[in-house]
Amino acid sequence: MNRSDVLIIGAGPTGLVLALWLSKLGIRPRIIDKSSSPGTTSRALAVQARTLELYRQLDLSQAVVQNGHRVGAANFWVKGEPVTRLPLSSIGEGLTPYAFLEIYPQDEHERLLIERLEAFGIRVERTTELEGFEETGDGITARLRLPDGQLEICQSCYLAGCDGARSIVRKTLDTGFPGGTYQQIFYVADVQGSGPAFNGELHVDLDEADFLAVFPLAGEGRARLIGTVRDERAERAETLRFEDVSSRAIEHMKVKVEQLNWFSTYRVHHRVADHFRTGRAFLLGDAAHVHSPAGGQGMNTGIGDAINLAWKLAAVLSGGAQARLLDTYEPERIAFARKLVATTDRVFSFVTAEGRLADLLRTRVAPFLLPKMASLETSREFLFRTVSQITLDYRGMPLSNGVAGHVHGGDRLPWAHDGEGDNFESLKCMGWQVHVYGDTSDEMIAWCNEHHLPLHVFGWRPAFEAAGLGRSGFYLLRPDTYVAIAETCSDPKVIERYFRDHGIRPFFGSP
């Protein structure tokens, strides 16, 4: 009987990232997908700054940035004319090494992840479908339908459902998926074209009718059109063609389409599963939460799920932690998913709302307010922090302790950079580590050496104070680079007690 440590159902970005992180940490996953080949008409585009920060751990960030497209600005149109331009090229300057909006289509993204996964000797098993599973003692027994139609019974220690909004894993677990479906029909068109909206920037139409956005892609004259259909056309979504929706883009944003590469329609849901874990089975990505595309959050949130779960599974499977560490996955991720769905729902409802008042707000009030907001550094910073996911935190969660400076346990470690260096360089390591900004005690140095816990001591500089870091305390960082302990003293017994209380015996660095 075939056996694996972790059986991953679904080879979208969430499943692939989970498999990659596990492989890097010395765990051999098995990943299957019912499709015969990777997707070629995917919808997700944005790779947020927090994802790029985490991708440094697998040396993926540079490849994404080099092959993707950095968006210089967002333009808002009313009545056939651009009325506001919001610069984006350095909107998060000083907050992250990736202070911009990066466009990297999901299909290209998946190919990169598959290539990196194959370097670990792991291949996606295609045309292979999960038919059911049950927990049996110390593992999961699953039934797989293979490409030749044969049924395979396999075992794994854990199962990860990364199989999308119609997840068979979620249905097998009988986990509720409350929420709703937006009335609008969405369409996506990948085109080659020309016109003022093909200048490499993002363009959004705020007019009275359907929502429409033009997203730039790498390469001359390439763009992705994303829009809604609300009138009688929505009733025949199954048969809609690009010709049925393209006239509005041509008329309102002066788009000249020279070649249509692909076109599809779909409905958008906003739902969060009641539970992200049942026993040895976990839900991640769209299997756990779906929401509107506002802000480009969906794929990035699924990737965040994968990284959160990967280091915990690796710790447990390698003997570096007790199984109760896995209890922290659901509370940490479900809280963010619920907040995200509520936030994107409000934004999406505003840009797609119907009626005279909604039209007035979009076409008159928004063009007046947006330039003022764009001119304020605080407004730009708030927008970037929210969309980039660098403000995602696990404050108040079981694995998060203390406060030092403005940094709480559970926060993402703030980035501090000046002419003398970058405090994120050591975060490429996938193990536990300690950061000190200022001075530390001989006891701390001796304890970290004895326990092989990497200790990074940075001489105090103004850049650290500006970032909100506390002086001469310490920060214990988790393998996913979030702060586990923020402490003002230099007593290593605080770390010792933390590991003992949580049943963790740290694994250091990558194998």
TrEMBL record:
Database matches in Pfam families: FAD_binding_3 (PF01494)
All copies of domain FAD-binding, residue ranges: 4-343
Keywords: FAD, Flavoprotein
Annotated InterPro entries: FAD-bd, FAD/NAD-bd_sf, RIFMO-like
The keyword Ribosomal protein is annotated on this UniProt entry: no
Cofactor: FAD
One MF term in the entry's GO annotations: FAD binding
Protein name, UniProt field: FAD-dependent oxidoreductase
Species for this entry: Pseudomonas silesiensis
